[in-house]
From TrEMBL:
Entry's Gene Ontology molecular function annotations: acyltransferase activity, transferring groups other than amino-acyl groups
Key words, A-Z: Transferase
Residue ranges constituting the N-acetyltransferase domain according to the UniProt record: 53-194
Pfam families to which the protein is assigned, alphabetical: Acetyltransf_1 (PF00583)
PROSITE patterns: GNAT
Native organism taxonomy: Bacteria, Pseudomonadati, Pseudomonadota, Alphaproteobacteria, Hyphomicrobiales
Organism expressing this protein natively: Bradyrhizobium jicamae
Protein name, entry field: Acetyltransferase
Length: 194
């Protein structure tokens, strides 16, 4: 069995399980826990956030999971955007008032760093903490980047955890800036040419 055989598109029946794998995977993420430091608020808001950020990947067949939904990556194809309206609503309902302006500035910085040319966007990739270190992220990344290379299209992401930057660099991503406002942790935009 090849590594690619272990990757499948997440269909509607496993969407909820895929989202919860990502919720677990981001439970210690600096930016996500700055956004929602209260565990109950995190668990209420994060599934909505994942669906708003990357949910359209399910509709386009570009939400990828490893066997057993142990890890997942939500890729948005060129010209497919996040659900900004849903993101606005989640932020308005769930953020602490003292970080609302910093989050708005972060989101503006993210928009400014997005490449103007068509590109694949990776808003979210995560593994269940029980499966971290098993190479599942590498399988997911290689699978998606093969498509980027075949199409000759760049890939773009923002790393919300500095510890993950070397992982992205091993896959050819280069740092193209830093986004940070007020009390927020840094967000690192990264680009990979095909």
């Amino acid at each position: 069995m090849t590594a690619e055989a272990d990757i499948e598109s997440a269909h509607a029946k496993i969407r909820e399980s895929t989202v919860w794998t990502m919720v677990l995977g981001f439970a210690a993420d600096p930016l996500m826990r700055w956004s929602w430091p209260d565990p109950r608020q995190y668990l209420r808001s994060m599934p909505q956030f994942i669906n708003a950020c990357g949910g359209r990947a399910f509709e386009h067949g570009t939400a990828y999971v490893t066997e057993g939904i142990r890890a997942a990556a939500l890729w948005l194809p060129p010209s497919v955007q996040q659900d900004e309206e849903a993101l606005d609503a989640i932020m308005a309902q769930s953020l602490r008032p003292e970080i609302t302006e910093d989050m708005a500035d972060l989101r503006q910085g993210m928009a400014e760093h997005r490449p103007p040319e068509p590109h694949w966007y990776l808003p979210l990739i995560a593994a269940d903490p029980n499966w971290v270190g098993q190479g599942l992220g590498t399988l997911l990344m290689k699978y998606a980047l093969q498509r980027c290379d075949e199409e000759g299209i760049a890939a773009y992401l923002e790393s919300s955890n500095p510890e993950n930057i070397p992982f992205y660099q091993r896959h050819g991503f280069k740092i193209i800036g830093e986004i940070q406002h007020g009390s927020s942790p840094p967000l690192t935009p990264m680009l990979r040419t095909a």
